[in-house]
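Title: Request for sanity check on DGQHR domain-containing protein prediction

Description:
We are preparing a figure and want to confirm that the structure record we downloaded matches what your pipeline produces today. Could someone re-run it with the sequence below and paste the raw structure tokens into this thread? We only need the token string, no images.
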Amino acid sequence: MPSAPPKTRTSKTSILSNVFFGCGFQEIKSEGIEFNFKGDASEFDYIFAFQNLIVICEETSGKSNTSEHFRKKQSFASLMKSDITEALEEYSEINKDLNEYLEENEYEIDDLEVKFLYYSSVKDTGASNTAPYLILTIDAAKYFDKTIKTIGKSAKFELLKFLNVKLADLGDQRIKGRSKNTTEDTFNAFALPSKQTNYPEGFLVVSFYVDPETLIERAYVLRRNGWEKPEVSYQRMLDSKKLKEMREHLSSDKKVYINNLIITLPSSLGIYINSGEERKKQIPKDEIKDVSSVEINLPRELSSIGIIDGQHRIYSYHEGSDSLEDKIKKVRKRQNLLVTGLIFPEDYDDQKRVSFEAELFLKINNTQKPVSSALRQEIETLVNPLSGLAIAKDIIDELSNNGALKGFLKVSVFDDNKLVATSSIVRYILKPLVDPDSKGANELFKLWSRSEGSKALDYDNREDYIRFCYSEINGLLLAAKIKMSPHRMWEARSNKGKGILSPTSVNGFLICLRELIANDFIFYDEERKEIKKPNYYEKLEGIDEFNFLSYTSSSWGNLGHKIYTTYFQ
């Protein structure tokens, strides 16, 4: 059922309202309306609506009272959640905007899907249990804001996934009482078994035509939950300038793209023999031995289709706010794109799927336009989590969130460009230092292996190894920070000020650590079963007078050796 046209937006503006307006939600005004319910009272910062979905939002930007603010809001939200029908019935009586919205769209209270959202510019609310609130962090908000700038209102499908809303919960499906039934769209297709495609045993390949709208509402690029790791998601995979050029071509030429798209499809996809009989017969994938004409039932589920190749062609049809939208919306449903879909074997878990998709994405896209070093590092964490590069990337992420380098490293597409870039740190120094397969330079891995009884690295102890590496690196860096902070030296390097932090200086400290281990200043004491190391705080006396600024670019080798010989030999 269509919702009413968006009303004039509130005078309040924030990234939170930008996200919801950008995704096509409308606001139900709530400011200044105190709601008394079951002996408690509160008012809501925002209420946003999309079809029968109502999102009740709270927002805070203060640092000192975030925990207390959240606790009070959580208490009232929990009270509402315990009897949401009665709560909304009473609230609609005092909120004229909500009542009008329900009447205009012919919604009953029972038709509504209600979510509670708490947004804070502070990273931590101080609560371990946040229910019934979903927490929107500042980084996630920036992710959605940037995604909107790339694919317009089509970003709403990503936001709906974040809100834990299913497509079956929206609109007519909910009103007709069928929200428990996942709807499906049927397509005629040709199926090819693995022997005709050279894919591993158990894979099935299907080719069919599908409209862009169907793809967009179900699609994801490499990661289902892009807000969790925005470095491997839409805005890193989509070029806004290229999308704009393709939309201009699409609106003027109006001809469908004829080249093939490559996607992945869910294992639960229903496949039926297309025999022309009135009653279709479902067929297991492993019974398809030759190229076969079939029907496939594509579930109407968010993030169920992975895009491997053709992301720009698909998203050039996105629901935009530009002058081209009136023309493009006419072809979004009407045109059909040729796609080849890979259906995974039933035994492929999420980790194996992600790894396969990322590796295939990298192979295909790197031949067309070289993938950036930073993006390759992110994809490596998906393809091969036990590789030295993936481990180094996760260690740098840990260093950016905790310890001496917290707040100084640029690890996200949303981080300030004034922060220390990490691509060269990961690639040139940290990877060899921690890589189990590195030839000779992996001193941190060898130290960990000795302390663990020559244990091999595997998925079970990977997180322990990352924490170990973080701890050893941070110990040295923290002592240096304590020595230099009073002189404002422990800051990102710039043309102004005394800040020494740069890829050169961070790599220099890592090389110093490598030499300390290689020369047995740091070692595992077999008798005492502990790692022995120097007193960094004592050894680094006078480092605040060291001329870090004379070392630039890739001179980190000389810098690291100089720190080692000056303060430890």
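Thanks, this matches our download. The chain has 21 helices and 20 strands.
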